[in-house]
Amino acid sequence: MATPASGPSVLTRRGVLTAAAGTLLLSACGRESERTTAVARPTPGHELVVGATLELTGRGAALGVAQRRALAISAEAVNVKGVAVGNLRRTVRLEVLDNRSDPRLAARQATELGQREDVHALLGGALAETSMSIIGAAQKLRLPFVSLAFGDSITVPLAQRTFVYKVTPEAGDVARRLAQLIDTQGLRRVVLLVEQGLHGDSGVRAMTGALRTTGVEVVRTVRLPRSTDGATRAAEQAVAARTGGVVVWATAPNSGAAARALRTAGFTGNLFFDAGAVAEETLEGGNALAVEGAYAVHPSSLGGSTMANGSATGRAYRDLVSQYIRRHGAYNGFAPYASDALLLITTAAQLAASVDRGRLRAYLQNQVTDGMAGMYSFTPIRHSGMERHSLGVYRVDAGAWNRLS
């Protein structure tokens, strides 16, 4: 595999794509040779160490636990053969810490991981607030960090986010799809019911602008409290506006609690969710009746398009779903962002032929990868890499997400 002689400072997007093509060819040749020779195994004593700070408890556990499960399954799959880094095959070792949904704890964990010479990259932060707290440590310690959170401010301003990347879709892309959907249904007035914090802030800006272009009026913007227990008052304010549609821009479990509170308050119109609502909790228990018929914009893996794909990514996704169901029960199709974050990091290591942090960062920012959740295209001036065409429109029918477009 060719490696630029002058280091990361002279990397070009074309060069990385060329290297990626070479990697695919080498992989194909490797599969051919494996038919007659033993399967390659990781080189003993050599690792690619990825730190992860996740919300395994606290208000972000609905997202964090699911990501830990997917991450563990994907790491096991990678380690069957290891990651080809230069002339070695490295084993992926995960260092997973519970940040308890506490931004201060997440920052301390990121610092501790970053100060270790054996940690090569970092992922995590399913909540925008925890991801934002990690950024300072990642930048100071020059540790590549792939965020799993929703919130556009995670990757901008770019000059202060040179080691930071994000796998979730942009708020603007989600908002445009939701605005088009609302417009086609003939609704002219809606309420925005958004959670407090950075994710909600992104939603307000994006939805206000997108709806303006379609001529739909935002009658009222109501903020959801951080606790699911306080959703009742916010829902009553939203219902009082008397519109036929409410956009709930919130991550699980707040999204499901908001839907339940809206129906209890007498709202009978259409509900629209952003991608942060898609988690097991949203469709379960007391939320089931409340969210029936609701719409969401989400990466296309939710509808099983990746499942039907005959590519390596499609096979990996099918294996992930199968293993997830076997170990943890029903799989409701949430996008495996942590699995894609790991894929981006391991691909960068392969292309760089190195686990050096600077080179990993350089190859992350010039990477085009077909992930399980969608297609990613990172550039030096764009670190939020999910392509907008990876998004689809879904509706909850009979307790399941069904793709409409």
Automatic annotation (TrEMBL):
Keywords: Signal. This is ABC transporter substrate-binding protein. Residues 49-398 form the Leucine-binding protein domain. Coiled coil: none annotated. Belongs to the leucine-binding protein family. InterPro entries: BCAA_transport, Leu-bd, Peripla_BP_I. PANTHER family: BLR7848 PROTEIN (PTHR30483:SF38), LEUCINE-SPECIFIC-BINDING PROTEIN (PTHR30483). Gene3D superfamilies: 3.40.50.2300. It comes from Micromonospora radicis.
